[in-house]
Amino acid sequence: MPKLNITEVENDPEVKLVTDPNEWEHRCGSCDNFCDPYEGYSEWAVCKCPFEGKVLADTDYRKFNCKKYWS
User: Fold this and answer.
1) Residue 7 forms part of a structural domain
2) What's this model's pTM, rounded to 2 decimal places?
3) pLDDT class for 2, splitting at 50, 70, 90?
4) Nearest-5° angle of CA 51, CA 17, CA 43?
5) Among the listed residues 28, 27, 10, the one whose alpha carbon sits nearest the alpha carbon of residue 19
6) 43 is in which domain, residue-wise?
């Protein structure tokens, strides 16, 4: 079994993504305006999600440059 280089593991983008405690803030599912396919909009929703039906809860809103995220 090969030995792992801890520096390489810590700098791996996927490892950083999984271990970042604030990463959830960049996911569509954390937005009040996100429309859950089973429960619909949150009671806190201010407006409709412009990407409704196109994004999942774990989609990174920055990829779509969403202007309605947490607005």
Assistant:
1) no
2) 0.70
3) confident
4) 40
5) 10
6) 24-71
pLDDT value, residue 55: 92
16 part of a folded domain: no
| Cα–Cα distance, 68 to 48 (Å, whole number) | 8
Q: Kindly report, residue by residue over 21-71, the tens digit of the pLDDT.
A: 998 899 999 998 999 888 889 888 999 999 999 999 999 999 988 888 875
- Tell whether the torsion through CA atoms of 19, 51, 66 and 44 is positive or negative: negative
- Could you give the CA distance from residue 44 to residue 36 in angstroms, rounded to a whole number? 13
Of the candidates 25, 39, 3, 36, the one whose C-alpha atom is nearest the C-alpha of residue 70 is 25
- Residue 56 domain-assigned (yes or no): yes
Quote the CA–CA distance of 25 and 71 in Å, as a whole number.
Answer: 13
- 52 lies in a domain? yes
The number of folded domains in the chain is 1
